[in-house]
Design goal:
The protein is α/β, with parallel strands linked by helices and about 325 residues long. About 65% of the residues lie in helices and about 15% in strands. Helix 1 packs parallel to helix 5.
Length: about 325
């Protein structure tokens, strides 16, 4: 099957948008990760207190840092936040996908097409799910409600998502948008790719139907009528595109320029601060260095509680 004249540009635009987002995200992760590593190597730890102060007969210590170290440590804190948010977002995406597939009431493969799984449900629905091995799912209500030509158009749409591995691509876009929250272009780029992916899959369904848009359009109307307002996932832009009056989503050029400027500033700040940073601290925690054993004993139950809460969330998600 050959691509239509509209599908090829959509695939090219989607690749451009996704590539731009991944490039910005990769540079952002490298920059923040470099700040963490550089700050860790710039801090010189000593057996004795870098600076001592005596308050009411008690000896307390505090680190000695210059302006470059303060900047570098601030960037390192940003890097730690980015890494933490990224790990949290990855876990959320994996658990949500796993929960969806596990809890889906699958009744069996679609007759005549074992690659499509049918799940119980009276409302018309169809989607592609799975990061590593994406599968196409369709509800029993959609199979009963839609005409054969309409069902074929819907399945062609979802097969295009599977072929492009859109669930994995969209998950990566969401993770980068959450982790690198200080880059304003990442979330709009993810939204643009989502719109382009839907339009591309629609055009693939139209091409599979011999160029006619009626089966897919009537299927979308049935999906929209079978769900409460706003829950069918059919945007007005998608309908306009299918009717031939819509436009392809534009790149947020201004936000991309701002993001590039922020990345440049981040990399330059890490480079310049690392050249002049000077920090000296002890192995003990500031203000509590006189009794580190008591601090460790106090933190043990806190760490145990956090580990218990994390284990409960993982068991609930599985």
């Amino acid at each position: 099957m050959h691509e239509s004249t509209d599908t090829a540009p959509l695939r090219s635009d989607g690749t451009l948008v996704l590539g731009l987002q991944l490039a910005l995200g990769t540079v952002g992760l490298i920059g923040t990760g470099t700040a963490v590593v550089t700050a860790a190597t710039a801090v010189h730890r000593e057996q004795r207190a870098a600076h001592d102060v005596v308050v009411l007969g008690g000896h307390f210590s505090y680190p000695a840092v210059n302006v470059g170290a303060v900047v570098l440590l601030a960037l390192a804190a940003l890097g730690v936040a980015v890494i933490g948010v990224a790990l949290h977002a990855v876990c959320r995406q994996l658990l949500a996908s796993r929960r969806l597939i596990r809890e889906l009431p699958v009744v069996g493969p679609l007759p005549g097409d074992p690659s499509v799984l049918v799940f119980a449900g009276s409302a018309p629905d169809a989607f592609c799910a799975g990061h590593v091995r994406p599968r196409v799912y369709v509800s029993a209500g959609a199979v009963e409600l839609l005409l054969p030509s309409e069902l074929a158009a819907v399945l062609s749409h979802e097969r295009d998502h599977r072929r492009a591995r859109d669930p994995l691509r969209l998950a990566c876009a969401r993770v980068l948008g959450h982790a690198l929250f200080f880059l304003p272009a990442l979330r709009p780029l993810g939204a643009r790719y989502s719109e382009l992916a839907e339009q591309r899959a629609d055009e693939a369904a139209v091409a599979a139907a011999g160029g006619t848009r009626a089966p897919l359009a009537s299927a979308l109307l049935a999906f929209d009528a079978g769900h409460p307002d706003g829950l069918a996932g059919i945007s007005p832009e998608r309908v306009d595109w299918l009717l031939g009056i819509g436009r392809r989503p534009r790149l947020p050029i201004g936000l991309v320029a701002v993001s590039l400027a922020l990345l440049t500033l981040l990399l330059v700040a890490v480079w310049r601060a690392s050249a002049v940073a000077s920090a000296h601290s002890t192995f003990d925690v500031p203000l509590l260095s006189s009794q580190p054993c008591i601090l460790v004993l106090a933190l043990m139950p806190v760490a145990a509680c956090l580990a218990s809460l994390g284990g409960r969330r993982l068991r609930r998600g599985s």
